[in-house]
Every structure is written in C-alpha cells, then in structure tokens.
Amino acid sequence: MTRTNAKGAPALPLNTILSGDCIEVMNSLPEASVDLIFADPPYNLQLKGQLHRPDNSQVDAVDDHWDQFDSFAAYDQFTKAWLKAARRLLKPNGAIWVIGSYHNIFRVGASLQNEGYWILNDVVWRKSNPMPNFRGKRLTNAHETMIWASKSEGAKYTFNYEALKALNEGVQMRSDWVLPICTGHERLKDENGDKAHPTQKPESLLHRVLVGSTNPGDVVLDPFFGTGTTGAVAKMLGRDFIGIEREEAYRKVAEKRISRVRKFDREALQVSTSKRAEPRVPFGQLVERGMLRPGEELFSMNNRYKAKVRADGTLIGGEVKGSIHQVGAALEGAPSCNGWTYWCFKRDGQTVPIDVLRQQIRSEMRQN
Ligand SMILES: C[S@@+](CC[C@H](N)C(=O)[O-])C[C@H]1O[C@@H](n2cnc3c(N)ncnc32)[C@H](O)[C@@H]1O
To answer: What is the pLDDT of residues 177-193, one digit of tens each?
Structure first.
C-alpha cells in the first residue's frame, strides 16, 4: 500500500520490507513522513574468540558480519549517518527509540544529541531470564538500554500516559521494564531448527513502545528490521510499518512472520486516554449554542445549592458570581470544585449533569 503526500504524489511504501542499506533507503524516502522510528542497530560487540558454556557447548553469540566495524570511529560514523537520515524522515512531532547494550548505547546517545534529537527518557529493559556470564569474570549482563528521543526540543511527541499506566495496573509506568528475552514459540527458527536471527527482540517490548508512543494509523519505520518484530507488532496494533533490512534471509523470515499476524479489531485498539488530551470546551459554548439558556437554573449534585446561568457563561448563586468551578467551590466552602461534574440541569423531570452536554460537543468535534 502506498500513501500519497500533500501534493497527491505517491509517497510511502507502507507495510513492506525494503532491501538495501538503511542509510541509502531512508535517504530515498520522503522527508517528514514517519511518526516513529524504532531502531535496533548493530551492537558492535567486538567479540574476541568463541564463547563456551561450562559443558563446553558453544554459545550462539552475535558474531555476524553485519555487527563488525573496524573501529569505534567507523561505528560512530555509521551511527551519525543513519541517525541523520532517520531524523530527516521524522515528522516534526515524531520520535525515535534506539535499543542497545553497553557496547554501543553510550556512543549512540551522544550521537543522538549531536544530531539534534532531544532525549526524553532512557528505559532499562531488565531481562527476567538473562544469559549467565559463563566465564564468571563479570556481572551477568541482564539488561539493555533504550533511548527515547523526540525529533527536537519542544516537539509535541506522542505519549499515551494513561494507556501505559493502565498496562501497569493503574500505576504510573516507570523507566525500568522487566520483560523476558525472546524464547519458546516466539523465537523464530530456520530449517535446521537453529535461531533464525541472533538478536530477535521480544514482542512484549515493542508492544509497550508502540502502545505508549504511537496511535493507530501511525507510520512506524524500523531501519534494522531483522526478523520484523517491529512490523509484526505494528500490524497487530493497527499501525503501518516500513522495514529496511539488508540481509535477504532475514527479510524472508520477517515476511513470512508478518503475513501470519492478524490485526486486533478496532475496538481492541482503543486505549485509555488522558482527560487532558480531550479538546477543551468552555462552559460559555453551551450557552452560545442554546444547550442551556441564560436564566436557566442549575442544581448542585447534592441538591443543596442552585445557581443561574448568565449570558456570558458565568453563574450567579446567592451572592456569588463566577465560573461554574468558582461558584461551586464558593458555595461548598471548598478550595476547588469541578463544575462540570458538580452542576446539573433539569430536562423532562430528569436531573442531568452538565458534563453530558460537554461530551456531546466533544463527540461532534471528533467526528469533524
Ligand atoms: C540487532 S538486529 C535487529 C533485530 C530485530 N530488532 C529483530 O527483532 O529481529 C540488526 C539488523 O540490522 C541489519 N543491518 C545491519 N546493518 C544494516 C544496514 N546498514 N542497513 C540495513 N540493515 C542493516 C542486520 O542484518 C540485522 O538483521
């Protein structure tokens, strides 16, 4: 599927895996067209020799050619180039997540700042089932770090605060995420039964990233697609993806994997939203639109107080004049009051909270 840009020209190769070097491919895509980038770049592990378990079996470590760089300087140059290409693709309010280990993430963090990104958080993905340190010479390496950054300082990046809080059973989501590494049925295997990719990330990680920092219909690009974890989760969650991967074998694995994924239904894709994210409706608009008439009486929820609506959208109750919130607070002798839930009007013998009228206006706004 291709989307058209503002001028009507075909633009984005949505829901496809592009082959080639990610820097060249990203430079060929239209500027400011992507909402989120998730990147899991080469770690530059610099492994020296084979690694064995105590039973002498060989550890399947990341020693692939795509992870080899001649020097830190070569890695830095590569990082700078792909981060620059990625930033060009982001919409002004777009954001990026980059995942890495102690081998590369500090270098990536510095490059992110040098390229003009604005770091929002670093998230420690604590692995609940890490691989032990077989030689016993260092600590068990039990986490990876993700850096979340907006395109620039002051950008209005997407953050679904309430949705992440809901995922965390009503408690504000923290920056340390305890999730297992990818094992069992989720781990993709090749025809010999070996791991199809050495660094396949768990879907749970991408689920949290995408629910927290994108909305359905957003475009998510992954320049180091591997087995397509980002694409698989994006598809499930009703986001569009663009994957870039240089290795044909990985592209094939990813294509097969994503073709089997089913998108969740529309209702399941709705997430909790912040009340602050709702459009503001001034009380006066209810009066201007004739939903409430000047002179009409409002009643407090507890039925103890009354106030009259005035033509300018203020209330008068006894001696007190002011906004729905001020008059409610003054009558109750309270420091503050949410006038929207405090005041009710009467229709056909029923007592109805004024908030119902505000919701009616908001739902009209959403439809337009
Ligand atoms: C760390 S892995 C990503 C794994 C992926 N997140 C997953 O869950 O399967 C990095 C991938 O980037 C690819 N890659 C490395 N350099 C690349 C480049 N310059 N352009 C495109 N792909 C590249 C590698 O082939 C490898 O599959």
So the answer is: 999 999 999 999 998 99
